[in-house]
Amino acid sequence: MPRTLFDKIWDAHVVDRLEDGTCVLYIDRHLVHEVTSPQAFEGLRMAGRKVRRVENTIAVVDHNVPTDADRLKGVNEPESKLQIETLEQNVAEFGVTYFPMSDARQGIVHVVGPEQGISLPGMTIVCGDSHTSTHGAMGALAFGIGTSEVEHVLATQTLLQKPAKNMLVRVDGKLAPGVTGKDIVLAIIGKIGTAGGTGHVIEFAGEAIRSLDMAGRLTVCNMAIEAGARAGLIAPDETTFAYIKGRPFAPKGKDFEAAVNYWKTLPSDEGAHYDKVVVLDAAEIAPEVTWGTNPEAVIPITGTVPNPADEPDETKRAQMERMLSYMDLKPGQKIAGTKVDVVFIGSCTNSRIEDLRQAAAVAKGKHVAPGVRALVVPGSGLVKKQAEEEGTAQILIDAGFEWREAGCSMCLGMNPDKLTPGQRCASTSNRNFEGRQGPGGRTHLLSPGMAAAAAVTGALTDVRELI
Amino acid sequence: MDKFTTLTAVAAPLNVANVDTDKIIPARFLKTIKRTGLGKSLFADMRYNADGSEKADFVLNQEKYRKAQILVAGDNFGCGSSREHAPWALLDFGIRCVIAPSFADIFFNNCFKNGILPIRLPEDVCAKLMDDAALGTNARLTVDLERQVVVRPNGEEFAFNVDPFCKHCLLNGLDDIGLTLEHTAAIDAYEARQPSWQPKIHGA
Ligand code: SF4
């Protein structure tokens, strides 16, 4: 029977099957960070258990590390400090490989995994963080888990799981200039909604997806979770193999060849069954921007803020009204031209070197508008270093952007980088819920180029006018 | 993990759709290294004013719902971030059962792992239960997991579905890890079969 990419990875990892169809699923890679692991290690210790396979496990600090240049002098915030220290004690006690703040390889866990060659095609990858879906761009089955499951994987190297359903999202045709992976995924979420993928693993396919570089693909899979999916997947191809070759933890020499031979068997078979299929035309996707407080409230930058009065469903209408009031926007107003206070370029969605280059291309020779605070937070210490060496960082610094250390930063209100109440932010992150970037903060999700355009003009702006 | 068999309790109505895990427990309360003590921060932004005082109109601040053990919620409850602090916060408050027309996947699974029973019921049924819940302490709902029914104060019963394995674990208070460790031989065998090119992560 023809199988999908998801089916193949799943089948290859079933260790055992319980009567009711629940599978004991083997986990190849377990990424651990400071926020969702303390209680899991606590549980292991209480039960006298060990980490079953330290060679499948890697730990990194990202969520609540400060991102200022002085951070190695110490973390001020007591609770963040406690979580970081607790992780350090746990990795030492249990023997897990760890990238601390002082290590250039430190960064956001979903940037670090692919960058280090830790996340590879055909693998099962988990992490106590919903954006683990990111690694699906490598052609791996990657999904977020809760802390109980973190403990379960640490203790058993497996999870108890039932297979998800298969969903195919195909983006046909070619992308217009200025349109990126971020715009594709925002457009997809706008079309299928934040519950559109519930219960499914979404495989992203089609010419527009194939044409993306790995950074763009990682962005798309990153936000599969915002479409409600359990995971996102993109079939591995020559772009994937070229990206992996030579990365520190990737197979080398003969092993690499053997791996590629296996990886080439992974793409979905002709005629494989999908429970749901959605098709988009790339030519119809513009640079997108969210106007509301969930990622499905998205419009093209050329669009206008929708009017709740046009919404027949009462609950939805009330929700729209609430979103408009929170975001301080008027129905029918053009979204372009909306003034911003803060610009955030970073997060596991858009903090890779390619993303920073997109921003630099727009900002080059221009300056951040007066009154706007613009931050660039590279996804890892190595991205930062590369940007500094190749001059991307200097372009952004010259344009008046703050250039910071790697971490989650202003993606979530958990570390010193936060919005203040009422501030409006053009952000390359993935979530625009109320208060996500700080209590009362207003978030507009968009691509790195669009974020840079907002920074230099001081307002939401069609990036295509600047390139 | 505490067993879940039959629960008769006050149900709190929270008739809001898309209550995400940021609403259930805002990110700023995640910096804990323990599983307990989060109940006071449950729904913090909906429940407290900026100065820390209670918002009188929020359901859990009303006297009759302070001891609620069941939550009747709106569509897509628990969407957003996968933080398990969300079920921990509910549990620490005392909630053992959430009833809604739909749930986000990760949250739904996390509930079972923490001894909370999430129940999906059709929208019209949830509307009736929401009406019951609005009666506060005058109306208690009964959730019978063995029989898989929710019983209204008037005796009317609604059947619900639950994964048999999750049901078994909840009824017996079984922890997943213990169950999985019964498969150790199969895990050993699987690891022995892994291809030799598969790289290992070793100390840096
Ligand atoms: S960058 Fe944001 S979304 Fe990504 S892992 Fe960090 S907090 Fe989560």
TrEMBL record, chain A:
PANTHER family linked to this entry: 3-ISOPROPYLMALATE DEHYDRATASE, HOMOACONITASE, MITOCHONDRIAL-RELATED
Catalysed reactions, semicolon-separated: (2R,3S)-3-isopropylmalate = (2S)-2-isopropylmalate
Function: Catalyzes the isomerization between 2-isopropylmalate and 3-isopropylmalate, via the formation of 2-isopropylmaleate.
Oligomer and partners: Heterodimer of LeuC and LeuD.
Binding-site residues, [4Fe-4S] cluster: 348, 408, 411
Record-stated family: Belongs to the aconitase/IPM isomerase family. LeuC type 1 subfamily.
Gene: leuC
UniProt lineage: Bacteria, Pseudomonadati, Pseudomonadota, Alphaproteobacteria, Acetobacterales
Membrane-spanning residues: none
CDD domains per record: IPMI
Keyword 4Fe-4S in record: yes
Organism superkingdom: Bacteria
Protein name as annotated: 3-isopropylmalate dehydratase large subunit
Pfam families to which the protein is assigned, alphabetical: Aconitase (PF00330)
Cofactor note text: Binds 1 [4Fe-4S] cluster per subunit.
One GO biological process term: L-leucine biosynthetic process
Top EC class, one word: lyase
From TrEMBL, chain B:
A Gene Ontology cellular-component term: 3-isopropylmalate dehydratase complex
UniProt GO BP: L-leucine biosynthetic process
Binding partners and assembly: Heterodimer of LeuC and LeuD.
Known function: Catalyzes the isomerization between 2-isopropylmalate and 3-isopropylmalate, via the formation of 2-isopropylmaleate.
Top enzyme class: lyase
Gene Ontology MF term list: 3-isopropylmalate dehydratase activity
Family: Belongs to the LeuD family. LeuD type 1 subfamily.
Protein name: 3-isopropylmalate dehydratase small subunit
High-level lineage: Bacteria, Pseudomonadati, Pseudomonadota, Alphaproteobacteria, Acetobacterales
Catalytic activity field: (2R,3S)-3-isopropylmalate = (2S)-2-isopropylmalate
EC number(s) per entry: 4.2.1.33
Pathway note: Amino-acid biosynthesis; L-leucine biosynthesis; L-leucine from 3-methyl-2-oxobutanoate: step 2/4
Protein transport found in the keyword field: no
Alphabetized HAMAP family for the sequence: LeuD_type1
Pfam families in UniProt: Aconitase_C (PF00694)
UniProt superkingdom: Bacteria
Source organism (scientific name): Acidocella aromatica
Annotated gene: leuD
Keyword annotations: Amino-acid biosynthesis, Branched-chain amino acid biosynthesis, Leucine biosynthesis, Lyase
Span of domain Aconitase A/isopropylmalate dehydratase small subunit swivel: 1-123
Alphabetized CDD domains for the sequence: IPMI_Swivel
